[in-house]
Amino acid sequence: MTPPGTVQEFCLRLIQGETLEEKLAPPPRDLPDVARGDGSVPEAPGRPATLRIVPGREARVPPLAGWGDLDQRVRIIHALANHELQATELFARALVQFPDAPGPLRQELLRTLAEEQVHTRLYVRRLEALGGAFGDHPVSGLFWNRLRETRTIAEFLCALSLTFENANLDHAPEIAATARLHGDEETARILDRVAKDEERHVDLGRRWVDAFAAPGESTWQAYRRQLFWPLHPGRARGEVFQTEARRRAGLDPEFIENLRAAESEVPESERQRRPTS
Ligand SMILES: [Fe+2]
Ligand SMILES: [Fe+2]
Question: What's the pTM?
């Protein structure tokens, strides 16, 4: 196949690709970001037959408590690989969906996409070292589906970077600690790396959400204004709250404290729904 000639071509191929090789081929250096398209995106990503997206209820993942059991551990790592693959596809989608985003932001999105590809590979290799294979278990499309409604790049960053990646600042260290408890240093080290990279990914979201914010609006205010149900701040954190990681990601005390107080359950009356206009 001829190499992609533009960022847009690279991203579309990645989204629509039906082999893991197509999805994990890194972006060529200095890819021209011209002819960016009209913003229309595929409904769903292409996937290899063994990684077709199924409803969440058909892709259940064992709880972390199952780590000591190799079969369950492999299924958890399988799900982590799918999270990273979805992150890869989503950064590609952002580049296709928002052709008018500033050039420097688009370059950052492309670099982040490449890091998500690396994360995917690391989990896939670990899975293989433990006797599994990527595609052995059903996978969900939760992240892709949750971000389907985003209409601006700022909304997209609120949902992906400031919610899902933000939550991973808690999840990744928690999973790493569980792996270490069971002597699984190799997997723990991958999670350490992912957690470290995630601080930069959250920082990217924060800086650009700030750049697009209304005059005088804080990061938290901009975040709340642009995050719609079923997403909510309770989805942006895990059980054990990592304050330092969030500081390193550049989040300010107001944001960190509001997030710390966020509940995982939101009463009907407090669910922020997108205004219908
Ligand atoms: Fe990642
Ligand atoms: Fe990330």
Answer: 0.96
Measured distance CA(133)–CA(128) in Å, rounded? 5
Distance from residue 166's CA to the centre of ligand 1 (Å): 11
As a whole number of angstroms, the distance between CA 101 and CA 68 comes to: 45
Ligand nearest to the CA of 117: 1
pLDDT confidence of 114, banded at 50, 70, 90?
very high
Ligand 1: distance of its center to the CA of 179 in Å?
18
Distance 115 CA to ligand 1 centre (A): 7
CA-to-CA distance for 169 and 83, rounded, in angstroms? 14
As a whole number of angstroms, the distance between CA 260 and CA 144 comes to: 26
Provide the β-strand partners of residue 53: 139
Q: Which residues pair with 139 in a beta bridge?
A: 53
Which ligand does the CA of 157 lie closest to? 2
Cβ count within 10 A of residue 2: 5
Ligand closest in space to the Cα of 84: 1
Taking the centre of ligand 1 as the mean of its atom positions, its distance from the CA of residue 198, in whole angstroms, is 6
Q: Under the phi-then-psi rule, with left for phi > 0, alpha for psi from -120 to 50, and beta for the rest, what region is 123?
A: alpha
CA of 61 relative to ligand 1 center, distance in Å: 18
For residues 38-45, give the mean pLDDT.
94
What is the per-residue pLDDT across 66-78, written as a single tens digit (0 to 9) for each? 999 999 999 999 9
SS3 253: helix
Instruction: Look at residue 107 in the predicted model and tell me its pLDDT.
Output: 98
Ligand number nearest CA of 165 is: 2
Token pair, residue 244, equals 């330092």
Residue 273 CA to residue 120 CA, distance in Å, equals: 32
Q: What is the pLDDT of residue 276?
A: 75
